[in-house]
Every structure is written in structure tokens, then in C-alpha cells.
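Hi, here's the filled form for the chain we discussed.

Project: internal
Contact: R.S.
Residues: 105
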Amino acid sequence: MAQMTYTLFSELLRGKIMVMSEQIPLQKELEYFQKHKQEYLKLYQGQFVLIKGEKFAGAFTTEAEAYQAGLEKFGNEPFLIKQVLDDDGIVSYPALTVGMISVLF
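And the returned structure, exactly as it came back:
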């Protein structure tokens, strides 16, 4: 009986998991940010912007302020906090550098 319950439960979840994996989290918000980035650079460079869907919800001096405002406005719903920088350089921490893996000779 337990095996049957597990199978039915996993069958129910399969569709939801596939739907969730097809959508990039906060994709709409990231696209909105990119669309308005030049404007944000002029007005809010170095600050943290708060975006929900396709709506600008404010600019803040710290990430913590933006996070608090996001919780107050949107509760437990996903929202984007993004620092407005001219160069959104990619930070990379290779596993070898941070000790996640090691190489022995």
C-alpha cells in the first residue's frame, strides 16, 4: 500500500515539477530590470532596486532595506532585489579555489 501511495504522489508531482523547471525564477523581474537598466543607472546607481513582476517598487541604500520593504509589500511572494551597477560582472568561485575539491599528485 505504501508503494502505491508513493507512486500516485510522485505521479501527481511530476507535472508540477516539470512546469516549475520550465520557468526561470524571477525571469519577468530580471527582464524588466534589463529593460530599465539605463534609466536606473542615471537615477539609482549603486542602490538596490526592488522589483515585483513588471513593477518598480523602490530604490534603497542597502540590500537589507530593500528586503524589508519587499516583505512588507509582497509578503512571502518572490521579488527581485538587484543592485544597480554599470558592470554586472560575474563572480566565479571555482570549487578548487574554495576547497570544495582537492587534487592530489
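Let me know if anything looks off before we file it.
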